[in-house]
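Async update (no meeting this week)

Hi team, since we skipped the sync, here's where things stand on the single-chain job. The sequence we agreed to prioritize is pasted below, unchanged from the tracker. I ran it this morning and attached the output directly underneath so nobody has to dig for it. Comments welcome in thread, and please keep replies under the output.
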Amino acid sequence: MTDTSRRSGSFPDKDTVLSFIRDSATPVGKREIARAFKLSGSDDRERLKALLKELEADGAVERGRNKRVAPPQSLPEVAVLEVTGTDADGEVTARPVTWTGEGNPPRIFLMPERKGHPTLGTGDRVLAKLSRINDRLYEARTIRRLDGTVGRVLGVYYPAADGGRIVPTDKRNKTELLVLPANRNDAEPGELVLADLLPASRMGLPQARVAERLGHTAEPRAVSLIAVHTHGLPTDFPPAALREASHAAVPSLTGRTDLRDLPLVTIDGADARDFDDAVWAEPDPDPANEGGWHLLVAIADVAFYVRPNSALDRAAYERGNSAYFPDRVVPMLPEALSNDLCSLRPHEDRACVAAHLWIDRHGALLRHRFVRGLMRSAARLTYEQVQAARDGAPDEATAPLLETVIAPLYGAYARLWAARQRRGTLELDLPERRVRLDERGRVAEIAPRERLDSHRLIEEFMICANVAAADSLERAGMPGLFRVHDQPSLDKQETLREFLTGIGYTLPRVPRLKPAHFTAILDRAAGTADSQLVSEVILRSQSQAEYSPENIGHFGLSLDRYAHFTSPIRRYADLIVHRALIRAHGLGPGGLDDAAMAGLTDIGEHISMTERRAATAERDAIDRFTAAFLADRVGALFTGRISGVTRFGLFIRLDENGADGLIPASILPDDQYEHDERAHALVGQRTGRRYRLGAAVTVVLMEADPLTGSTLFALPRAEGDLTGRSVGGTDHPLHSGHPDRPTGNARFAGRATQKQRKRGR
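Output:
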């Protein structure tokens, strides 16, 4: 903090006043500055006024409401914020609803809601008081909720002598709600309910009225149902949308290219129900492209069925995307489309938009052409089937296709993969948990998802088609939505550079970083104790991908232009791109309309939000299923790694099953701990004990609550201080001198789930 003591007769210089303004948590006025530096009298006031004008003219400060000054592009003391989700460390994040500065707004962490108030969900808007931590980081505390979001709580109803209680399912909300008999709405014991908060009284528990009954918590489906309703995912389609879907039919061949003789195949997970892409490849017969390949990527023609401004379109836009849970899908489109007419089922005629792609022997995209067609899938294959066939163990379905279909696909994939390697993409393929349920809907297993070459094959085909879609729109001068991913911000670069230097790695200072710079560090760390720690901190430094009509390229994939085209059944962004291509190339009805063209910025912001909302809900459901899986092992010891470090505690990822849980900072042994954000560590104020990202730990499971998804750990007391045999020692991986491999649950936009990888991120 700036030293504001003043010697008699002295006046602070410009740098001193500027430091005071920068260190202030909120914008400041002349009166506060004068008080801080003990300025008085008309001469001092005039000198201060002139100094502030000089700082403003230099661009060092900006003047806001009531002539208060702050660093450039600072946020106001009070602002309307929209909740964007939770970050890698579990903290609730938000962004200002209005932002006129350059680039992305600063990061905002929302403080926990007051006791008795429902927690915030993605998309909620609040009026909040902000405090600046630094130029790119703020804390905010809710003043009040906006947009009618006040007072709806999801919880479980239990009877009580005075009526009943609702126990909230949100692990951050510990306050029970009183339900008087008149407000029970026939809720039964153990039933999951949505309840409206009633006006608060001064005495006793806050009251609520049961608004909706959702089913009994003993049912296996309740786990994901809680996640769905907690995050506000729309679940019911309007009757008009359902009618439109039920009246849809496969189109005729008129105006379409007949692709039914090509042996296109779908390759998906074994549990997939909607098949929105099919692939085929052949060596390019053009002698001018020796060693090159002709690829065909056929995508369900959702734009034919979902027309702009229709009831289906409005419902799809509201959802933004499908959300996937271990036991259900919350689809973007009604089942009559998503699982039937828009699903490329084998041996059935289906409408498609197909990309013809020609690549050279090095995997570079030479040219492309988009057609609207009618296709008939030759087979529905799984990743495991295709990989087994490639590895010499074909089955009944793949044996007839091995030489004519599967082998050419792998031939083309080899070229695309080589191009990817030369391009130098950012490869942060951290483990992804897969929850397998038994026939009763109970968790049978939690294990890492297997990553096969067949997965990579489909991913590369989809990426190539997405690049072609973006290129086609740019060449036609047609507005559309790009999938953009910026390079890390300058402050994140500097923080990462400082951390890596401390453990012996160098991130170069160059005008513009490339993925190859990170890949070089990852390659050097591979196989060492630092490997996943380095991956984790690089991952945390990345920007978040989003949808925008302004193309800035995709940093993680090292691509100049990129648009999501390959999954319109489950992503509204892809539907917009399909409509833009249809309009640009005159491919018939269902093209992008003028209203959507004018509103692409708003559309991009909305579906970026719905994407984050769905991802948060999916992650929440996984946490709840995991808690259910661990519930009967409370008290057991587990080994794991510190996968996140926050002000409020340590996140732990178990080695055995990838389960995540928290050790609250309040129960760490024998000290008060401060969060060293740059070092990714909690540091004891008295002992200097450090708990650092990536360190190996042994923990005791203290709580596993499927209702809230809360999994809490503690450090076993039998292990002493648990940071080594002596507090000052460095012979234990929890010390900063010996970081060990983390497993982590951090996120960045380029970290892809299996479905995202298939669709090309």
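Quick observations from my side:
The longest helix spans residues 600-630.
DSSP finds 18 helices and 33 strands in the chain.
Reply here if anything looks off.
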